[in-house]
UniProtKB/TrEMBL annotation:
Binding site residues for ATP: 108-114
EC number, as in UniProt: 6.3.2.13
This protein's name: UDP-N-acetylmuramoyl-L-alanyl-D-glutamate--2,6-diaminopimelate ligase
Taxonomic lineage from the root: Bacteria, Bacillati, Bacillota, Bacilli, Bacillales
Family: Belongs to the MurCDEF family. MurE subfamily.
Span of domain Mur ligase central: 106-314
Amino acid sequence: MRLNELASQLLIRSIIGDPAANITSLASDSRLAQAGSLFFCLPGFKDDGHRFAIQAIERGAAALVTARELDLAITQLIVPDTRQALAMLADHYYGRPSHRLRPIGVTGTNGKTTTTYLIEKILADAGGKPGVIGTIETRYGGNHYPMSGTTPDALELQGIFKSMVDAGTDRCIMEVSSHALEQGRVKGCRFRTAVFTNLTQDHLDYHGSMDAYERAKGLFFSRLGNVYFDDPKQRTFAVLNVDDPVASNFAKMTAAETITYGIDNDAQLRASQVTISARGTSFKLDSFWGSRQVNLKLVGKFNVYNALAALGAAICEGIELKDSVRSLEQIAGVPGRVEPVNAGQAYAVIVDYAHTPDGLENVLRTVKELANGRVICVFGCGGDRDRAKRPIMGRIAAEYADAVIVTSDNPRTEDPYLIMQHIESGLLSASVPREKYVLVPDRRAAIEKAVEMASPGDVVLIAGKGHETYQLIDGVAYEFDDRLVAKEAIRSRSN
Ligand SMILES: CC(=O)N[C@H]1[C@@H](OP(=O)(O)OP(=O)(O)OC[C@H]2O[C@@H](n3ccc(=O)[nH]c3=O)[C@H](O)[C@@H]2O)O[C@H](CO)[C@@H](O)[C@@H]1O[C@H](C)C(=O)N[C@@H](C)C(=O)N[C@H](CCC(=O)O)C(=O)O
Ligand SMILES: Nc1ncnc2c1ncn2[C@@H]1O[C@H](COP(=O)(O)OP(=O)(O)OP(=O)(O)O)[C@@H](O)[C@H]1O
Ligand SMILES: N[C@H](CCC[C@H](N)C(=O)O)C(=O)O
Ligand SMILES: [Mg+2]
């Protein structure tokens, strides 16, 4: 593709050098630039992509996208905002794949991954060919691809969309993080439906305040338009959890048609009579589209919300409620979410991805309700992430668990002891007796200790890492899977 074809997508731009330069790929990381690449110099949080222009040229880049003229002998497309240009040009370069996929995006602090899995199952059972992008992996056409975060940057995202289209995928279901919204990673992406799960404390390191975090999430709904209302296929929808107070703000912001769900408040999809057991969760569903009993294999009241969110998204796709319910009832679980680890033991061991105060409280409440004995909770908090959540999670663990083992969860560049002390300050503020908790920095030792302590009927909850298969310490990813480590610990327990 010629540079000027790409440049024509932007109103404000100027070209220095050859407008007909032949572009054979796009790159925003100089280390990935190739012969013929158009290299985008992005301003970053740690660095500035303009500093890597020379490296990109050395690797054969055909032209640069820059925010200012660089003193380099290469064609340059100068734009006011290189990040915005990347999103818009990547969309064009790959042939506007999101217009074909019309993604269903799921945003919210907790429940995004789970909800995308539920929607995927409903769409697949209805005869579609859905693909998924999110925290655990990207998958479509029977293939699975590893992910390094939740929502890829605009270039990677548009590339995935294009591959999905080429593979015959007909709808994409994706997690949309607040970071992605803030950084314009989904700019240029034409969503059909935006699903909101909930908003509770997390990521204050990045957003600074809950108001700013809410504003970032709100961008998703404010950008959804309904300008093609005459053609039903072109409509857009917002599916909102009305038990979360911010939903009414999002409803006001969006031009899309809204569908509401909830348990406590009146909603178009409303659950009542929720009962949970170790075998699953049941509820009565009353809705604009009919009433029915729903029996999920998924455990936890929070999964009722995820199920309602998925039903809402499915209704926007025109799928009959009874068919969606039948699909949901078949889902045995989502990897690393309330996932039991069984090796024939007389106590339960559950691995879960709760890594926020609300997530931890929800899952602890659930396991407490199910336990015949004590609840032993193993958890930590990520390094280089929201520090404010650490003492809160300590306090929550103190409130719901009978024994707490504080450990490491991806300390990254922080001192694991300091992170544990932040959590401990929350435990102490809850006046927990010293014998009720212990700090064990080595996560394997922490899991082994919890398993050693368990008696028949107890539940060991290992929270925070879920599906993760690594422990990040000082820039190194060490192999670590809570589920495998727990299984080994159960098998090698002394009695
Ligand atoms: C804070 C944040 O979001 N940072 C993202 C950002 O990195 P950055 O701005 O720090 O990049 P930088 O290191 O300053 O580099 C600036 C530019 O120079 C380029 N560069 C850099 C080095 C080099 O040798 N050559 C080169 O060209 C970089 O490619 C980049 O374009 O842009 C990068 C490329 O898009 C992202 O990978 C990176 O995510 C980092 C890894 C991250 O940890 N992000 C987390 C916080 C995140 O986004 N999490 C959410 C999940 C939240 C949830 O689930 O609720 C997510 O969606 O994943
Ligand atoms: N609807 C919900 N409300 C509150 N907590 C939930 C909900 N759904 C799941 N959880 C809890 O949050 C954890 C993470 O769930 P999930 O992975 O689905 O969320 P996520 O939003 O994708 O998280 P991330 O931001 O890390 O991608 C689960 O393991 C569970 O403990
Ligand atoms: N999406 C979340 C995942 C946290 C998972 C936890 N294991 C950690 O590393 O803190 C984040 O990036 O904040
Ligand atoms: Mg997720």
